[in-house]
Amino acid sequence: MGEYSGPVNAVSKHAQVKLRDFAMSFPGATEHTPWGEIACKVNGKVFVFLSCHTRGFSMSVKLPQSRADALDNDFAQPTGYGLGKSGWVTCSFQPGLEPPYDLMKEWIEESYRTIAPPKFVHALDTGEPVPAKKSKAAKPKRKTARPAAKKPRAAGRGTKPRHGPRQR
Question: Are 51 and 7 in contact (CB under 8 A)?
Fold first, then answer.
C-alpha cells in the first residue's frame, strides 16, 4: 500500500467528502472503509467506491444504462478486477482537478438504483421511509410434536440375554 502514502491533495479530499455525503443521503445507505477506500452500500451491496490518495481522486460505480457514454470520457475506464465486465466504471482525476460533480452525482444515483432493492428505490422516489423489516421473533413459535414414549417389550420374547452360540 506504499502508493497511497504521502499527503493527499485538498481538492481530491473535498471531492471524496462531497460525493460521499451525496451517496450517504440515499435511503438505507451505509458507509464502510475497506482497503482505505470509502464504500457506500445499500442492503449490504456496494453502489459506489470513493478513493482519495496521492495520485488524486477516483470513483467506481455500476452504470448499466450510461456505461458506453461514460467510457467516452478521458477520465473513465472499465473498473479492474473483472468488475468492468459487469458494468462498473472507474473515474480517475489527477490531484487538484475537480470532477464534474453533477455528472458524478447522476452516476452515483444510477448505480444506487441498479443495486438497491425496490423498496429503497421507492423510498428515494417518494420520500417515504423504508418499510421496517419484519421481525422473525414476532412470529409465534410452532409447537412440535413430542415423540411417543417407547412401549415396553413383551416379557419372554427377546428379553433374555444370549450366552454362547445361537441354537436352532
Answer: no
Residue written as grid cell 482519495: 52
CA 79 to chain centre: 17
Q: In which domain, by residue range, is 108 found? A: 2-124
User: For the whole model, what pTM was predicted?
Assistant: 0.74
128-141: per-residue pLDDT in tens? Answer: 988 887 766 655 66
Q: What is the CATH number of the domain that holds 76?
A: 3.90.1150.30
Spatial separation of the C-alpha atoms in residues 117 and 124, rounded to whole Å: 11
Q: What is the total count of domains within the chain?
A: 1
Q: For residue 42, how many other CB atoms are within 10 A of its CB?
A: 24
Residue 15 DSSP class: H
Chain position carrying cell 417389550:
153
Q: Which three cell numbers stand for residue 48?
A: 459506489
User: How, if at all, do strands 76-78 and 88-93 pair?
Assistant: antiparallel
In a domain, 89, yes or no: yes
